[in-house]
# Entry
Amino acid sequence: MTVLRAHQLVIRIPGRASGYPLDLAFEPGQTWGVLGPNGAGKSTLLHTLAGLHAPRAGQVSLDGDDVGHLSRRAVAKKLGLLFQDRHDGFPATVTETTLIGRHPFLSPWQSETAEDLAMVDEALATLGLSELADRLVSTLSGGERQRVALATLLTQTPSVWLADEPTNHLDLHHQVETMALLSKQACRGGTVVMCLHDLNLAARWCDHILLLYANGDACWGTAADMLVPEALETLYDQALTVAEIDGSPVFVPRA
Amino acid sequence: MQRSIGPLALLAVLAAASLLLAVMVGSVAIPFSELTAVALGQGNPLHQTLIFELRLPRALAALATGGLLAVAGALMQVLLRNPLADPYVLGISGGAAVGALLAMLAGLGTFVVSGSAFAGALLSTLLVFGLAHGTGSWTPTRLLLTGVVVAAGWGAVITLMLAVSPAEQLPGMLYWLMGDLTYANSPAAPLLVLLVLCLLLLPLGRSLNVLARGSLQAAALGVSVRPLEWLVYIMASLVTAVAVTTAGSIGFVGLIVPHMLRLVLGNDQRLILPACALAGGTLLVLADTLARTIIAPEQLPVGVITALLGVPAFLFLLYRSR
# Structure
């Protein structure tokens, strides 16, 4: 059980002098959706929460320790981050790529054990990638690579899951599978924070929402309080129609 | 780990075989049967001198230099996340060459030429590092661009020096620029550096694998990226400086050997880096043996041979790869 907390946090966005300070806790069992227009700082927020970017003000703590002061290894044992884009500069197979999720748990002198490989096999099976285990990642489609990245995150077994647009490149079926997978981590006591563009995925899977506005403003709360048409129309500067299907609101942009 | 033992053992056998070949062939051929006698301190005194004072030191220097260049190339490729990087891409050989040619122009001896080359290599390393650091952030692209531009600057200085040099000094200078092991008769230092390098890299292999996937991803997986990048940069630069000082700027080994091995063995640095040390060394021993025997008693610059051997071998592997 790990608590990720933002203390009066202002993220560093080039050209933005300040912003509304974020002061909130991401608690175990919660699934957070971060929504906002392009350039609002969703990815930067995730990177800052992971300690990869220094904040402009305030701090981020992981179980009470400032992430900026923890070793990268200590952070990586508790917190995993799914990136929006990836670099496959050198050829590597799906298995090799997924195996790097075990890196934080192995000392420099250790090599991966049979147990680590078993975790990789399980993660690949979960994401329907077992058939592709020996393929080079560079020969895969965008959606398949996205699933390899998710499999890598699974083998890292973090308590805090930060996912930057986890459904990127995925077909409808795999979008639902991925959201169900992340939601399952929250049910098991994990904390999930994900940037999303699809309001309907957020409405269906997230119990908490953080809205980031282009001008640096922010507000957060439960999904029921935050996913109201007025707030979302201001957020995206886009008129919306709302319907209710199976008990969840469905948002459709109006032309 | 177990699966790396096979390829490494094979490469070690090849390296040993290349050393045997190098001490056997030359102006006076020494038959294999004679080698054991010589090794035991018996046999023909001429053969004793040939092997222990001329051929073996030179072959060992070639082995060490080739190994250093290949490992440095593999490190630079991971550091810059760029498959086109080689040990010289950041201008180290240019700085060394300017140092060496200045010493040659001044008519100084081999020892001073080597020292001056080493000083030039270090100067270039510091220059590139300082400039790339600048006031902004330190990114692989910025480091690469700074290195390439500094290398181009050294290139111009070298051309200028060649243009104004007296004609009788030109062949020596050109040989140095193309790589030459004629004066490499003290292999102890480069061999020791290669050994220390391999030991230092042993615990870093997996971190380098993660680093090859980008600095943010590496940091997210628990790698302290900045210290690791500095360490890799300093190690690669120092060993390149040692290699250049031993044998001039020998091209292609540092670019082609890591890629050839990756095409066959995959990209696990824990296997690739020691494999580079062995395969780079073997390639340079074979190239140097050819360089001194093809048109004996004349010698060819070894850099020409590494390119002539390496280019077709590399293209063949690339053509066959997935």
Remarks:
- Chain A has one domain: 4-91+158-253.
- Residues 172-187 of chain A form the longest helix (16 residues).
